[in-house]
Design a protein that fits this description.
1 helix, Lipocalin, single chain, 16% helix, alpha+beta
């Protein structure tokens, strides 16, 4: 019986160590969940807003923003990301914009370059966006900037 307890304790300790090592490794990568704030580049009229992003290891990303930014209704953003340098990344994601009667307004495409800070817990991004109508014509476009902070596990008190 003691042998089983010791074996279980060793396995738990090893899995905790592996998880901690994985967390430390991810701290230098974009993989994970982020809260960000964004707005138009200087000289544009895009209002500030906040959002959430998740970057999966396989290069898939999911993004959502506060509703007022994507009126009247929009899907979450779905897209892809890749590493382009030691702490730099490129992303492209799409939102479908639609009216309350479910008719399509168009597709919002966002492309951005992200630079992760040395701690791996914050990023700065700059990029462009364009909304195209169902025929592919650009309705409007612009430039945006963002700043993100990694979401980390906080102990419940």
């Amino acid at each position: 019986m003691n042998t089983k307890r010791i074996l279980v304790a060793i396995l738990v300790a090893l899995s905790m160590t592996a998880a901690a090592n994985g967390q430390a490794k991810r701290a230098k990568d974009l993989t994970g969940a982020w809260q960000y704030s964004a707005g138009g580049a200087p000289g544009t009229d895009l209002p500030p807003f906040i959002g959430l992003m998740v970057f999966a290891r396989d290069g898939v990303m999911i993004e959502s923003t506060q509703g007022e930014v994507n009126p009247p209704a929009a899907t979450p953003g779905y897209g892809a990301w890749k590493k382009t340098g030691p702490r730099t990344y490129a992303t492209t994601f799409l939102h479908i914009w639609y009216r309350p009667d479910n008719t399509l307004i168009g597709i919002l495409k966002v492309r951005q370059a992200i630079t992760l800070d040395e701690s791996g817990d914050q990023f700065d991004g700059a990029g462009s966006f364009a909304v195209t109508d169902p025929d592919g014509n650009v309705i409007f476009s612009g430039q945006a900037m963002s700043h993100g902070q990694r979401i980390v596990v906080e102990q419940d008190q």
